[in-house]
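quick one before i forget lol
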Amino acid sequence: MNPQPFFFYILTPSFHHSFVSHLFLFFYLCFVEEFKVHILGCGSANPLSKHQPASQVLQMRGKLFMVDCGEGTQMRLARQGLQINRIGHIFITHAHGDHCFGLPGLISTMGLLGRVARLHIYGPAELQGFIQTVTDIFCQQMTHEVEFHAVDTTRHSMVYSDRSVEVWTLPLNHRVACCGYLFKEKEGARHINRPMIDCYEIPVCEIGNIKAGADWTLPDGTVIPNERLTTPPSPTRSWAYVSDTRVRDELAPLLRGVGLLFHEATFLNRDLFRAKQTYHSTAAEAGRIARMAGVAQLCIGHYSARLKTPGLEAQLLGEAQEEFPNTLLAQEGICIDVPVCPKD
């Protein structure tokens, strides 16, 4: 007997259940599970031919969150294939040009692209006048609003929250008001236990309710508890961004359990006096904070112009790894999957 044509098969409930389930799984793996950091720039104030001013982007669950926006950031967004208008929230650490001079161009380009969604910018109060001037002079025909949120850089407090993530400030010690940011993923829904879903022939339209915690009732009235239909949610992840600061041991408790810590490491140990003088950190100090906090991985950057000589960045890495072996060097263009920090 000849098999039925494929178009008859796609109308059957079994195909519909299988296709939608796999489509749901694909979306979940591609967007819900993502939590990664793109390094756009990891240089410091003095221009370097090999490094760009500071900026990083967190990509999670289909959203982009930017931290710092040094000059030329929009060009690096394009180079790394990140869509400018997917950025809804920008967090600025402090009012030094290498961390915020990219904002005028970025805001203007968003308008040229027809953005309509409001853009939220967070940072020290000193930035508000700068952003207002930029929008007043260069963005008069802008199609979207820019809302500034002043943050208290002296307190560890939550400044943003949605269904997926919380953002907390990290008080730092720099020459001007300055804070880092801690992004903490919220616990997601429980995972579907596919064999049990198939066993009880639960329709695809009920998957969302099951993931949200609902039980399932069979035609004979038997209640199948949610614990049999699902497995626990994935462990949550977190990313901390610690920019310009003298080393602060007080940060360690706030960073406990962080999966990926970016900590500035402007100087080598030999320049410790210069680091203290300019309110920056050395690589070894960054490694010590990572060790004290028990993070999963450390990434160092914000390289001084003093590191032009070949081999000095490798020396920087070595000094950090003496304190914390699982350390990597920030480089423009890399993307880091944020790991889960093992529990004590």
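fyi Residues 1-12, 23-31 have pLDDT under 50 and may be disordered.
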